[in-house]
Design brief:
Number of domains: 2
CATH superfamily of the largest domain: Spore Coat Polysaccharide Biosynthesis Protein SpsA, Chain A
Low-confidence stretches: none
CATH class of the largest domain: Alpha Beta
CATH topology of the largest domain: Spore Coat Polysaccharide Biosynthesis Protein SpsA, Chain A
Oligomer: single chain
Order of helices and strands: EHEHEHHEEHEHHEHHEHEEEEHHH
Mean pLDDT: 93
């Protein structure tokens, strides 16, 4: 039986991908094969990096990618609010469709796998996670269940009570940026049944802002696959994992009250921040030196020696670009709303 790790990446997150791969090599305790699922076709730097590593491969099963994108598209088409809300956001099709490619791990080469978003760093052994998969189909290790439910499910209270139990809503919610699962835990019959349930009106429970996370939670909770969350069942033993927490740093490894982290997640920090940092800009990223250590683990000579603030012109260009992008999206939403009104 083969254990492995998946991540989702393209050239946009190249610096983060390199840091993640180096952290796996440094902290896993043994060699674990890694498979990179392509976010899109921007892969020149990713392919070159993979070619330099003996235990890293690129997921190139186009039929599996097409299969899951088709399933995801069907699932979200059943949602009564997507066409209106996503269209107001300037989105055509399924919002963040490529993020759902994480599901390709269910058809990949590993019998048991752990998925890492590219904006994570491995801090310790994963053996205990793979062992838990001996008795469970899906495993998490995060405190998402303590967060506001609306980020996962935002349907009416009546519908939520109809679709899920209170125990599921209060204890089984998880973050889709890091999870473990077994290959092919969802059969064709199970997936068809999930689509039928979504079409029956249950799709309206799902939140639209983070579609992959919402759909994955729905699939796991509604299908009844065996689920376990270390951060819920072993709350006295697990550590935090989010960058906003206060951790101790010892030899470029993070500790939470003396306990070694399994992983650090830079969730919600834009990839451009890491790109600018690695280009020598003075960007304030939590645990910056730790990230830079792993990013340049095999090329310390390339690590920036000094960090400078961006020039006033660069700052202005970025601010202007951000403003225009935001304004364009607002105008497009207003235009589409006006167009809908006059077409009725």
């Amino acid at each position: 039986m083969t254990n492995g790790i998946y991540t989702l990446a393209n050239d946009v997150v190249y610096d983060q991908l390199v840091a993640l791969l180096n952290s796996i090599e440094a902290n896993a305790g043994r060699e674990i094969p890694v498979c990179v699922i392509p976010y899109d076709r921007r892969l020149d730097k990713v392919r070159a990096e993979i070619a330099s590593r003996k235990n890293v491969t690129l997921f190139e099963n186009e039929s599996a990618i097409a299969y899951w994108e088709n399933f995801v598209t069907q699932a979200w088409k059943t949602h009564p609010r997507t066409q209106r809300v996503w269209r107001e956001w300037g989105v055509t099709g399924t919002y963040r469709l490529a993020m759902h490619r994480k599901l390709c791990g269910l058809n990949g080469p590993f019998d048991k796998f752990i998925y890492f978003d590219a904006d994570t760093l491995l801090m310790g052994s994963l053996d205990y996670v793979y062992q838990k998969l001996d008795n469970h189909d899906w495993v998490a290790n995060d405190f998402q269940y303590r967060s506001d439910l609306k980020y996962i499910f935002d349907g009416s209270p009546e519908l939520l009570r109809k679709v899920f139990t209170q125990e599921q809503l209060s204890s089984q919610i998880f973050c889709a940026g890091w999870f473990a699962a077994k290959k092919q835990i969802f059969t064709e019959m199970m997936l068809a049944d999930l689509l039928e349930k979504l079409k029956s009106g249950e799709a309206d429970v799902m939140a639209l802002g983070g579609p992959d996370q919402s759909l994955f939670n729905y699939m796991v909770l509604r299908s009844g696959v065996s689920y376990y969350n270390f951060a819920y069942h072993d709350v006295d033993q697990v550590t935090g994992n989010h960058w906003s927490s206060k951790f101790d740093v010892v030899d470029n490894v993070l500790y939470d009250q003396g306990r070694r982290l399994t992983y650090l997640h830079y969730m919600s920090i834009g990839s451009s921040q890491f790109t600018h940092l690695c280009a020598g800009e003075d960007v304030d990223i939590p645990y910056r030196d730790v990230f830079l250590y792993y990013r340049y683990l095999h090329s310390p000579e390339s690590r920036p020696k000094t960090f400078n603030l961006p020039s006033p012109l660069t700052s202005l260009q970025r601010s202007t670009s951000s403003f225009l992008s935001h304004k364009a999206k607002r105008l497009m939403r207003k235009y589409r709303t006006f167009k809908d009104k006059i077409s009725k």
